[in-house]
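Entry for potassium ion complex. Fields follow.
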Amino acid sequence: MVGSMKMEDVYIWDLNAKWLGITPFQLMENAGSGVARIIEERFGKGLKVAVFCGTGNNGGDGFVTARHLSFENDVTVFLIGDETKIRSEEAKLNWSILKNLEFVKIKILKDSSQVKKLSLEEFDVIVDALLGAGTRGEPREPIRSAIEKINEYHGKAKIVSIDLPSGYPSKVRVKCDFAVTFQWDKEEYRDFDRVIVKIGYPRELYHLIGPAHVKFAFKRKGEHKGQNGKILIIGGSENYYGAPYLAGKASSYLVDLVYLLTPERVARRIDDPNLIVREVPGDNLRGEHIELALELSERVDAVVIGPGIGTKEETKEFVLEFIKKVEKPMVIDADGLKIIAEDLDALKNRKFVLTPHAGEFKLLFGVKPGGSLVEKSKLVKEKAEEINGVILLKGAYDIVSDGKVWLYNKTGNRGMTTGGTGDVLAGVVGSFLALGNEPLRAASAGAFLTGFSGDLVYEEKGEAFTALDVANKIPLALKRILEL
Ligand SMILES: NC(=O)C1=CN([C@@H]2O[C@H](COP(=O)(O)OP(=O)(O)OC[C@H]3O[C@@H](n4cnc5c(N)ncnc54)[C@H](O)[C@@H]3O)[C@@H](O)[C@H]2O)[C@H](O)CC1
Ligand SMILES: [K+]
């Protein structure tokens, strides 16, 4: 069991499950049949059952439960609300199926006066499918009266809530004997007895990075200029100018302001109006440029350090000093990784994502990742825990870990081995940091979005494409993901 889950995780798994092709119809069928099975296991058959349904998908689960219990039990469905309010396709389908059955009694109660008049003496079991995860605020009428009506029979009939006691977490909630909840034990659902049933999610969903990670990471802090993330890219040297440019280009699609700190000869080669280039004299960044770099870092939300920065002695001093002093979350990539490999202590109390490929991983940790996905993820998790930060190990499947959980990303293709896609990735991960995400989310979303952009380029061009193609495909990739 992977500990307790946050609701946000559940929404992410839901969305990624859909991306895998698992439909809400399957989930609702499995949910409702799971509840029916638990009821029959616990209370037998030949029961008089009342199923109280709302007009959301919690109610939809109730429709399915009623169908599964019908005929062998005497089932009455109470729809609390107007049937035209049933809105999801899956709930509508299950409602119409129910209405076609002869052996299910249906009562539609639209207002609370009708509900208050109800007597439920005859029922052995009352199923509460009024409200579930979609509850917003205190229960409103007529649902409220239905909750109060059910509670009149607490201790007389068996009361089984679907997913959670309706009304929860407000104090007006169903006093159920237990709730049947789905697939994982949400930490928000703690103070009631519950039975967990699986409803079709593959367990590996906990480890799969999907489009939902990008959707949640691409939150826009505010709609005003400059509130949507500012990033500083530090890189370039006498023999590399493309790397910092690619990282900056990728970032320019995701955040509002992109600063680029680079030696003058690199700066002269970059004439992209989206990038605010700050140059230092000479061929390489070195110790005397620390102050400028730190001063610039104060203006941004996140930093990417390493693309094309080179490994001259003078540059090593600059990189290590900067990493120790910077106050912002950062991505350390490429030559930056080679430099800190000599002094991992520089990472103490820092907030960072390392983005090594297998060779850089070996340089950092003395062991080359190999074997199965699980073996590699175990190694990445172990090293991430050791350095107390996030590692994104690039590969056919990228592996991301913060030392507590591990995730893998399947997007991307063979064409991505072209030089520079690592720089694009570093810029994308840095941008998600700049948008306010924790390192694990930033790395996960960055891996998915970069690979997905590469997949869109592959669809268009086959394997012969450049890293700049990948960077320029980010807007379309993001659009596709946000539409899912
Ligand atoms: N992925 C899963 O885990 C699955 C969940 N299923 C079930 O779906 C519900 C969540 O369904 P949703 O439609 O989002 O919301 P609800 O049915 O819980 O409620 C929405 C419904 O109720 C009205 N409403 C909201 N707040 C209130 C209120 N305070 N008072 C009165 N009415 C309220 C709102 O207008 C809607 O009409 C989840 O709990 C599971 O049971 C899937 O079926 C299986 C997979
Ligand atoms: K419920």
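NOTE: The two ends are 29 Å apart (CA to CA).
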